Amino acid sequence: MSVVAGGGAGVDQDDPQVGRLPLQRVPDEVPNGPDEGIRGAAAEAEQEAAGLRPELSRPEPSRPERSPYDATGTEAAAGDDGADRHSFESALEAQEEAALEARLRLAAEEDPGASSLLGAMLLRRGDPDDAEPYLRRAAASGIRAGANNLGVLLHQRGHREEAAQWWRAAAVAGSAPAAHALGLHLRDHGDEPGSEYWLHQAAEQGHTGGAYALADLLEHRRETVRAERWFRAAAETGHREAAYRLGRLKETSKEGEGAEQWYRQAAARGHARAALRLGVQLERRGEREEAARWYRQSAQGGEPRAACALGFLLRDGGDEVAAADWWREAAEAGDGNAANALGALHASWGETDMAEQWYRVALEAGDHNGAFNLGLLCAAEGREAQAEQWYRRAAYAGHREASNALAVMLLQRGDTPGAEPWFSKAAEAGSVDAAFNLGILHAGRGEQHDAQEWYARAAGQGHAEAALQLAVAKERRGDVSAAATRYRQAAERGSAEAAFRLAVLLERAAEERFDEEVDRWYAVAAEAGHGRAQVRVGVRAAERGDTVAAEQWYRRAAEGGSRSAAFNLGLLLAREGSESEAMLWYTRAADAGHGRAALRLGLVAARRGELAQAHRWCERAAEYGPGGVTERAVRLIEALRADLTA
Q1: Please, are residues 192 and 219 in contact by the beta-carbon 8 Å criterion?
Q2: Which residues pair with 75 in a beta bridge?
Q3: d(CA 148, CA 176)
Q4: pLDDT tens across 460-514, in order?
Q5: What is the predicted pLDDT for the residue at 97?
Q6: HEC string of 558-582?
Q7: Nearest to 145 by CA among 164, 163, 171, 122
Q8: 345 CB contacts (<8 Å, ≥6 apart)?
Q9: Cα-flanking dihedrals φ and ψ of residue 18, to 5°?
Q10: Can you tell me the distance from the alpha carbon of 361 to that of 507, in angstroms, rounded to the nearest whole number?
Q11: Quick check: 246 and 264 in contact, CB under 8 A?
Q12: 3-state DSSP call for residue 592?
């Protein structure tokens, strides 16, 4: 990498402070004659005050107050928009610069300081041929600014080794910009010790670019503590890339704290990636509005990942149309994740052709999620052959969920030998679902030990159903404590069945200390729509005398299809005097095969004298059971027969 490019990996090349060569400003005041030439370290420090820059700054002329008359002495036109003033000041500046150049040319033959200033002025103007002899004269006379700027000129012409010689001479004489340039040159030639030495010299003198380049070198060598020190030094003087890199160091450290202030500093100076990282941090802690502002700034600065993140933020806020606009912008800039998101959005709108188009764009951007999503799209439309083709493409590229989906497809087709390797590949790559599916595969073959190992692996990665399967196995073996632990693990990860089974397990312990937890887990399962849990919540409410709550839960469960809940609701309504409605729920429960409900209907019919109907319900009760119900139903049937034949 050339010294002109200057930055390390991950550096913003558009940053005006990164990778620029050291040229010095021409001071506002110049010597009047050879006897008043600029000499000494103090004067050279004045010449080098500009620091790391690719070209010389123009001299700053003193600017007199604007006269109400223009240069020709005529009165300025009313409504002047500033163009005349700009023209006047430009002309004045050109005159002053021409006069300065003339004075420097007169002094340059005798005064090396003037020669150095003139060479720098000509180099800035883009006249290296005219500048070179003046800079060589100054450098040969020991003017370190002249030596540094001669190095710049030679480097621009491709004479890099000679440039390094002059930079070395200037650096030895105390020039921080030259030490910086020499450090970059040595780094690019593989001399890291030499590079570190000179960059350190520049950094110690307060040179911003030197501090940044030194930190970059140290971070590359994983010397993060020292790197952080010099990134901080550069950032504190306004170097935006240093502030961003310091933020990244802070974010990836063990503590993971302190990054935000540096991201803010860099983002405030227009650093697109810093604005993106700041947005991510703000979104993580729920400050979505401010996160969106920084994402927008980053996206407008050309960072497609920020446009993609802003799209997700807008979608989650309910503005899918605005989300689509940002995703489209990011996708067209090559962000595969945004293209996938846009495809999924169109799919949710029922626009499958557009969805497929954007999934293909994602794939072309190198995002294999595109192939996986194309597989899902085809599978949903019944295009099995095409779905398999896309799954295979993504799976061969290492997409773990595509590998799992392909294995599921093969397994459903009956190709277990073909499915198992893909399940294994997906599981080894970290697919939790694939690990669980391998557990099912081994359990189906009676290989319980292997099944438990895969279930345990999936459960360890948060798979609730896998933890549930482990709990059931533990309970069957009589290990109640281990079963409760696994049930609790699965319940905490959202398994309603596990929450219900845990409550049952604790309730069976019949210990008062578990009562509160039993109620809690039944309620968790019931709220998740678990019918049996809803019945148990209703029963426990009824036992406490809370018939209102009991009725509510019985109704929810009954309306969800629970025959036990329908029967219990019937009993509750009958006790409260609503026998007509109770009969409706008894009938629903009996029609679903509930023996006690059928028997109850038989008894009510017998009491009403509807003997034939009572006989039919008792026959059904005897058929449904259980044993005690069957016995009572048979006795009632015999009594009914006697009455019917009497």
Answers
A1: no
A2: 69
A3: 10
A4: 999 999 999 999 999 999 999 999 999 999 999 999 999 999 999 999 988 888 8
A5: 85
A6: HHCCCHHHHHHHHHHHHHCCCHHHH
A7: 171
A8: 315, 320, 323, 324, 327, 355
A9: -105, 130
A10: 56
A11: no
A12: coil
What are the per-10-residue average pLDDT scores of the chain (646 residues)? 28 31 32 26 32 27 27 32 66 85 89 93 93 95 95 95 96 96 96 96 96 96 95 96 96 87 96 97 95 97 97 96 97 96 95 96 95 96 95 96 96 94 96 95 93 95 95 94 95 96 92 89 96 96 94 96 96 92 95 95 92 93 93 91 66
Sort 108 into a burial class: Cβ within 10 Å, 0-12 / 13-18 / 19+: buried
- Residue 49 is predicted with a pLDDT of 30
- Dist CA 170 CA 182 (whole Å): 10
Take residue 345 and report the two structure tokens written for it.
């959005």
SS3 69: strand
- Which residues have a Cβ under 8 Å from the Cβ of 595 and sit 6 or more positions away? 620, 621, 623, 624, 625, 626, 629, 630, 633
Residue 375 to residue 196: CA distance in whole angstroms: 52
Residue 86 is predicted with a pLDDT of 64
**Cβ-proximal residues to 431 (8 Å cutoff; 6+ apart), any chain:** 400, 401, 403, 404
Cβ pair 177, 207 in contact under 8 A: yes
* Strand, helix or coil for residue 41: helix
Task: Supply the angle between the helices 531-543 and 547-559 in degrees, to the nearest 10.
Answer: 160
Smallest CA-to-CA distance from 531 within 567, 496, 505 is with 496
Asked whether 565 and 579 are in contact (CB, 8 A), the reply is no
> Which alpha helices (H) appear in 22-175, and where do they start and end?
40-47, 83-108, 112-125, 128-140, 144-156, 160-172
Amino acid at 417: P
φ and ψ at residue 5, rounded to 5 degrees: -65, -50
Q: Where are the alpha helices (DSSP H) in 239-287?
A: 240-252, 259-268, 272-284
From 559, 585, 563, select the one nearest 572 (Cα to Cα).
585
Residue 644 and residue 614 in contact, taking contact as beta carbons nearer than 8 Å: no
Whole-angstrom distance, CA of residue 144 vs CA of residue 124: 17
Polymer length in residues for the chain: 646
The Cα angle at residue 525 between residues 523 and 530, in degrees rounded to 5 = 120
DSSP for 101-116?
HHHHHHHHTT-HHHHH
State CA 162 to chain mean position distance.
48
Q: Where are the alpha helices (DSSP H) in 24-82?
A: 40-47
Do 369 and 337 touch, CB atoms closer than 8 A? yes
Full-model pTM: 0.68
